[in-house]
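Q: What does the assembled structure look like for these inputs?
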Amino acid sequence: MSTVKLMLRDDRTRFRPGEQIEGGVAWQLDRRAKSIEVRLFYYTKGKGTTDLVVVDHAKFEDPPPERAEKFEFCLPAAPYSFSGKLISLVWAVEAVVLPGKQSARLEFVVSPSGREIDLDQTQLHGDRAASDARAG
Amino acid sequence: MRARDNPFRTEQVLKVRYRLPGVGWEDFLDRLAALDYRAMILGPQGAGKTTLLEDLAPRLCARGFNPKLLRLRRDGPGFPPGFLGTFFAGLAAQDVILFDGADHLGRLAWARFKWRSRRARGLIATSHGRRLLPLLIECSTSLELLEAIIEEIPDSGAAKLRPLLPAMFRQHQGNLRNALRHCYDLCAANAASPRGEV
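A:
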């Protein structure tokens, strides 16, 4: 069975917007593949339809049966990782063996603080600020 | 609970596939062949028609057919101008059209669609009630099916949800899609609970 593995440099799981993201992809193929594609993307999880946007990709054409390659992407300024009750926005890199469904995925956080933005807490702070302003 | 941790988030619910009642896929495909691959899937909203149609596609591929999926939503736009002309012009002898929401076409439009699809090997359509083609299967739901689906969803907190399910099933009139969205809301509202509890 073919295997494909992904890793991010220093096993990082938190990044800031605009930062460089570096990693490696390693594979062992038991049948010939056309290419191996590493994708940087973000997608939504939650109650509604899942939206997915591929921001960048690196392609390794005609891959040998076994190899490890490096990749690097520059993260855009937005969007930030966030979670609320109805929707979460999740950043990830994914390696896919083409053609086929063999893949590996790593999720990580992108935000100025390095922490996922909690919409419920943001709402709470907003409500408190509005309440303080009215009281003051 | 964060949306990405909600056990009833869309990606988890979509992993639950159609359960053919009392028949295996081979027998089901044989029945479809006996209907010359021109048949309809009937059932109310949230009964699994779309899921069944999606599950049919790879099995038709395995039998050497080329499934072509079309979808019309009740509240969505119709096909863009010129789309169907291009679609029908590109049909080949091994194509089987899987038309989800075919009953959203008017009667005249449906008659025209059927006529134009004659070059395809097959046409399988879903409908909420209108008889469009010979019946392949009538999808239905039950409280037991809802319970079984919730058991199948990882970390769903099935034991705690089970007492709520009879009322939920009645409230949504057997629409399992809406019942599962209801379960999502229950989990989302209970932010303080540890994962898997409701």
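Confidence is low (pLDDT under 50) at residues 192-198 of chain B.
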